[in-house]
Specification:
Strand order of the largest sheet: 2-1-3-4-5
CATH architecture of the largest domain: 3-Layer(aba) Sandwich
Radius of gyration: 20 Å
Number of helices: 7
Order of helices and strands: EHEHEHEHEHEEEEEHEEEEEH
Number of domains: 2
Distance between the termini: 46 Å
CATH class of the largest domain: Alpha Beta
Number of strands: 15
Largest sheet: 5 strands, parallel
CATH superfamily of the largest domain: Response regulator
Helix content: 25-40%
């Protein structure tokens, strides 16, 4: 790999950060741009510096590594580094890039870094997420990293939003309007007060009652477009 990988280390143990920094000196593509001792500091530095990669401890005082990910707007590659192997299954549930146990095996670290393939560098000069960006979702004890491209639609449920992807539909404490503000409108369309749909999942469009539309997704789920939004949808899709 010739491309520089801007990296932040997040661990409450200073000696652990020092050891990892020392091990990473053998990998010239890794550029350590910051170290953080807790989740709040990590959040601040991640959102300010937009690293490509973070090495993240899970068990930290006050907030865990999972708590940190839940708060982030911008999600880089994540490699969990922890002494607690009972968290291994949960780490893989969130589809982290990789998981390394302490004390770190240099060969394991080498194998992990060899797998990193950075996407084309994007400018993060606004709050919109690109179609290939991933978001972190947490519902109870379950966590996921999900690409926006894999999300079929969002559904409002009171103060929560249900996110539909694969066979999962976790509830997150967000408003549908908050999510709409983060999405590119070329890929996601607000069909009504209740739904935002990924237009790339639409298989069929039918006229519906009172001037509305009915969308059938490739998953065979059906979503109604309100009369108010139907003309906007036709204009956007050139119907």
């Amino acid at each position: 790999m010739s491309k520089t990988i801007k990296t932040i280390l997040i661990d409450d143990e200073r000696l652990a950060r020092t050891e990892l920094r020392s091990l990473l000196t053998d990998f010239k593509q890794i550029e350590i741009i910051e170290e953080c001792a807790n989740a709040d500091e990590g959040k601040e530095k991640i959102e300010a510096l937009k690293p490509d990669l973070i090495f993240l401890d899970i068990q930290m005082p006050e907030k865990t590594g999972f708590d940190l990910l839940e708060e982030l707007e911008y999600i880089p590659f994540v490699i969990f580094v922890t002494a607690y192997d009972e968290f291994a299954l949960k780490a893989f549930e969130v589809n982290a890039f990789d998981y390394i146990l302490k004390p770190i095996d240099p060969e394991r670290l080498k194998a992990t870094l060899a797998k990193i393939k950075l996407p084309e560098k994007k400018e993060h000069n606004n709050q919109k997420l690109s179609y290939e960006d991933q978001i972190f979702l947490k519902d109870g004890e379950k966590c996921w990293f999900v690409k926006l491209a894999d999300i079929r639609y969002f559904e409002s449920e009171g103060n929560y939003v249900k996110v539909y992807f694969e066979n999962s539909k976790p509830l997150i404490l967000r408003s549908l309007s908050n999510i709409e503000d983060r999405l590119e409108d070329k890929q996601f369309f607000r069909t009504s007060r209740k739904h935002i749909v990924n237009v790339n999942w639409i298989k069929k469009v039918d006229n519906w009652f009172s001037g509305g539309l009915r969308l059938t997704l490739t998953s065979n789920e059906e979503i109604e477009v309100s009369r108010r939004q139907a003309q906007r949808f036709r204009d956007m899709m050139s119907l």
